């Protein structure tokens, strides 16, 4: 206690000096206010953030980094007397390193350390209110992107982590050694409950493990949620009885209020569903609440990342999806849409690799070429299953398996329901393509190069696979990606 009093007194002198400096120059001086500490020694318990900053013309990059540290921790636009009533030396975030990004237009990677005491335990809302709070609209910067974070073990342990995790999910489904297969219902909107349930049944009967509500299916006039749940679960139960496999359908419980979401989740549980679904747009607190509900009720929790591209897609402004994935593993979801590499939606292979590692590794080491700027040990939080979805089809199975591995849900919406032979044939094509590719890989065949031959051979005796390959052979999505790793700093021992 004595120590703090002393520090406060020393600080008060420093604050007065800082204030005089500021008033004299008439310019904000975050560096002089103590937010730039190049010789700072990072503590094991610090939360670290790496921001891509684009300072306004004429703004010194270190000053800009210090401004980010200030605005995302304790500072306001001017020095305030009340700082002296706090342990402000400790509470100020510290910008401790700024690297120019080669080949960029005045962009820098700024590293900032935050003391653990700045954050409430187990609250993504509180963490993000600082880290991505006001600071993204801050005038000294033209643009700002949160590229990565290091969450220390001390803070991780205050979070629940995935409600179920990959290991328990596989045990519940009794499914090992291969990716899981799913399909998103199409058309996105408009089907009645009975027709919808029919699609679920056919897709599961054909060999998929899961079907899935689309992100914008909730309780519209054409199909209220209870109808959807009842018809879907009828389809699930029938398909399970006929195939002898455990199956599920992600019942989207997204709704306007927590009360509505709990009511829907409870009904899904009563009907025997193994999985429910939420959309990212419900917000971090709602996601954490649903994760706690899922843990209490032995339910797998699927998260659709609806809305993420509004802030993850641009290269110089927003938040990297890798960071969102990290927050979601802390928040406690079991499945997360994480990109496909191939398919209709953008995604650079290196960036996607970094996201998949973040979801499912026990310890994620720094890997600069994958955009992973910090070591991230997960401190016992369970693994989260990535979901590959968006314009994928059976003809890409060798690429999907090579890029994404086994612990993933491969989800074919149009690639099941658009099959010329019908939904069940589409599911058969996907299951056969997957099984033959896993078998080839396990026998040591180089599926990256030989994969297309493997598929063609299997298609000789599997008419639905042949039809799928014929239908989608020309479908490629090779539009330029806007997302790739361009920042490869020299690692320093401090990291
Ligand atoms: O409906 C689909 C996919 O349908 P289809 O298989 O017919 O393309 C999903 O909402 C998107 O995959 C979301 O994208 P992401 O998974 O990248 O978040
Ligand atoms: Mg969708």
Automatic annotation (TrEMBL):
Keywords: Calvin cycle, Carbon dioxide fixation, Lyase, Magnesium, Metal-binding, Monooxygenase, Oxidoreductase. RuBisCO catalyzes two reactions: the carboxylation of D-ribulose 1,5-bisphosphate, the primary event in carbon dioxide fixation, as well as the oxidative fragmentation of the pentose substrate. Both reactions occur simultaneously and in competition at the same active site. The basic functional RuBisCO is composed of a large chain homodimer in a 'head-to-tail' conformation. In form I RuBisCO this homodimer is arranged in a barrel-like tetramer with the small subunits forming a tetrameric 'cap' on each end of the 'barrel'. One of its GO terms (molecular function) is ribulose-bisphosphate carboxylase activity. It comes from Skermanella aerolata. The record marks 344 as: Transition state stabilizer. PROSITE patterns: RUBISCO_LARGE. Transmembrane segments: none annotated. The modification N6-carboxylysine is found at residue 212. Coiled coil: none annotated. GO terms for biological process: reductive pentose-phosphate cycle. It catalyses: 2 (2R)-3-phosphoglycerate + 2 H(+) = D-ribulose 1,5-bisphosphate + CO2 + H2O; D-ribulose 1,5-bisphosphate + O2 = 2-phosphoglycolate + (2R)-3-phosphoglycerate + 2 H(+). Its cofactor is Mg(2+). The active site is at 186 (proton acceptor), 304 (proton acceptor). Heterohexadecamer of 8 large chains and 8 small chains. The gene is cbbL. Its EC number is 4.1.1.39. Residues 35-155 form the Ribulose bisphosphate carboxylase large subunit ferrodoxin-like N-terminal domain. This is Ribulose bisphosphate carboxylase large chain. Pfam families: RuBisCO_large, RuBisCO_large_N. Residues 165-472 form the Ribulose bisphosphate carboxylase large subunit C-terminal domain. Binds 1 Mg(2+) ion per subunit. Mg(2+) binds at residues 212, 214-215. Substrate binds at residues 134, 184, 188, 305, 337, 389. The keyword Lyase applies.
């Amino acid at each position: 206690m004595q120590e703090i009093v002393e520090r406060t007194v020393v600080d008060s002198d420093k604050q007065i000096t800082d204030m005089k400096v500021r008033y004299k120059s008439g310019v904000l001086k975050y560096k002089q206010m103590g937010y730039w500490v190049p010789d700072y020694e990072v503590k094991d318990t610090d939360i670290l953030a790496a921001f891509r900053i684009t300072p306004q013309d004429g703004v010194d990059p270190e000053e800009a980094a210090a401004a980010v540290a200030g605005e995302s921790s304790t500072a306001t636009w001017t020095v305030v007397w009340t700082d002296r009533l706090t342990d402000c030396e400790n509470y100020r975030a510290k910008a401790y390193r700024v690297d120019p990004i080669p080949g960029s237009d005045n962009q820098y990677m700024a590293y900032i350390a935050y003391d653990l005491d700045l954050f409430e335990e187990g609250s993504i809302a509180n963490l993000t209110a600082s880290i991505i709070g006001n600071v993204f609209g801050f005038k000294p910067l033209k643009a700002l992107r949160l590229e990565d974070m290091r969450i220390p073990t001390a803070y991780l342990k205050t979070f629940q982590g995935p409600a179920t995790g990959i290991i328990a999910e596989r045990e519940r489904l009794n499914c090992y050694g291969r990716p899981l297969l799913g399909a998103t219902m199409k058309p996105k909107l408009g089907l009645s409950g009975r027709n919808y349930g029919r699609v679920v049944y056919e897709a599961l009967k054909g060999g998929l493990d899961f079907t899935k509500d689309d992100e914008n299916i909730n309780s519209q006039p054409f199909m209220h949620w209870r109808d959807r749940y009842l018809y879907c679960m009828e389809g699930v139960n029938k398909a399970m009885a006929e195939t002898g496999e455990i199956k599920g359908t992600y019942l989207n419980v997204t709704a306007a209020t927590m009360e509505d979401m709990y009511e829907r989740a409870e009904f899904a549980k009563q009907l025997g569903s193994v999985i429910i679904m939420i959309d990212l747009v419900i917000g971090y607190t709602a996601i954490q609440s649903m994760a706690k509900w899922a843990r209490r009720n032995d339910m797998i929790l699927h998260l659709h990342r609806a809305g993420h591209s509004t802030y993850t897609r641009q290269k110089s402004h927003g938040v990297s999806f890798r960071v969102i994935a990290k927050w979601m593993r802390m928040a406690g979801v079991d499945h997360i849409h994480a990109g496909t590499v191939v398919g209709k939606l953008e995604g650079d292979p290196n960036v996607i690799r970094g996201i998949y590692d973040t979801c499912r590794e026990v310890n994620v080491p720094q890997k600069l070429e994958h955009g992973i700027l910090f070591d991230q040990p997960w401190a016992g939080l369970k693994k989260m299953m990535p979901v590959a979805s968006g314009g994928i089809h059976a003809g890409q199975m060798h690429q999907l398996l090579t890029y994404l591995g086994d612990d993933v849900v491969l989800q074919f919406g149009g690639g099941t329901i658009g099959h010329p032979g019908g939904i069940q044939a589409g599911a058969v094509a996907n299951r056969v393509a997957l099984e033959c590719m896993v078998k080839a890989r396990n026998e040591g065949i180089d599926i990256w190069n030989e994969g297309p031959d493997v598929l063609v051979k299997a298609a000789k005796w599997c008419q639905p696979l042949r039809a799928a390959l014929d239908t989608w052979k020309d479908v490629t999505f090779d539009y330029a990606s806007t997302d790739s790793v361009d920042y490869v700093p020299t690692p320093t021992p401090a990291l």
